[in-house]
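Whether sequence alone determines local backbone shape is best considered at the level of individual chains. In the encoding step, the backbone of a single protein was reduced to a row of integers, each denoting a local shape. For completeness, the protein is quoted in full, as a sequence line and a line of structure tokens.
***
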Amino acid sequence: MRGSVALGLLVLGLAGAAVVVGRWEQEFGAQSPAAHLVLETVNACVALLLAFLVYGRFRRTKTRQDLLLLQGLVVLGTANALLSVTLIKNQPAGAFGNWLPPALRIVGTLLIAASALVPYRRTRRRGWRHWALAPAVAAMFVVGAVLYWRKDSLPQDPSSKALLVPQLLTLICFAVAAVAFTVQARSRDDVLLRWLGPACALGALARLNYLFFPPERADWLYSGSVLRTASYLLLLVAAGREISRHWALQAEAAVVEDRRRVAREMHDGVLQELGYIRSEISAFSVADRQRVERILGASDRALDEARQMLEALGRSDDEPLGLMLHRAVEQLAQRYGVTLDLELDESIVVDRPQRHALVRIAREAVLNAVRHGKVDRVKVELGRAGDGRRLRISDEGPGFDAAGPKNGFGLVSMRERAEALPGTFELTSRPDEGTTVMVRW
């Protein structure tokens, strides 16, 4: 996606440079008040739409960057809306009408440049979501009041060279924002930032075009206006991406909430019942102790499975493998009083199904060592082996004859999970020499 955005920006930039260097404004300019009105209306609608989406984003993130971006977009949208109203009236706007939109654009682009430069941190003051637009509204009111007060001293001609000053200031702000947003997009996985940089770059290019070819009449459509609309169309793409991201986050939040609900039900229902069954079995007569031990073992396994499912439901999907392994085996070690030796490479990254399978293998191997080997120390290693990776669980227990029958469901399950990675499963054990489970993938 970043490559396509950069390519599109390069093409548009070359086209704009051709307009500037080749002085082809006569080919791109045309007297079309209706087309100019349509473009300005589109610009205003896109800016205000994106501002609405950024407001929702700000309510989630509560960052200064989103707050300033929201305010800047509102001011820019208001400036474009005022220009659209002037075009609808089709009357001379006067000094106040000629200067108000450019002055508001300076304020809007200053806010956008500030949003690109501020650190990505949360606002410290509470209640900003209720007063998020107050500074922008106050700034627009002050600018409007000052211009209205000084309207008699402002140039009346819409083609006055003095109006190039707002164009220059807006160009600088857009250029700074374009560079800052582009740099941030390279280090942050943020869909909106990927499009803000190119959009601001096109906005700067439009202002550069205005500096070379100052618009002389409001009812004419200039190439700079087309470039401005192109920048707003990129903002429209950003709005679409932000909407998609919003619904994806909503769906993810719904899934998380559903998982938490199921986890609560399991904790209050299944786990409590299994714990009760185990406590009742412990009080049985010792007349048939072997059967009682088998039932107790089955109850313990069911409790372990239920606890693991409960943990999986409350776990984040993006947790690293090393952290998940550490937590899973640490819980078993605390429950059974076993000492752990952990050597886990935190840099190893696997996908979600592989994480689940490897954690299940590690838990099963540690449980086998505790229950069957009666060991008091287990070593768990996660690291790299040549071009691949490996998970190794070993103990110094009594061991067993690995060449004998291996019909236990636990061993079969571990082997099948390892082969599905895809990977290999190795079991090494000898009497009085301990047991080692190795998974390579």
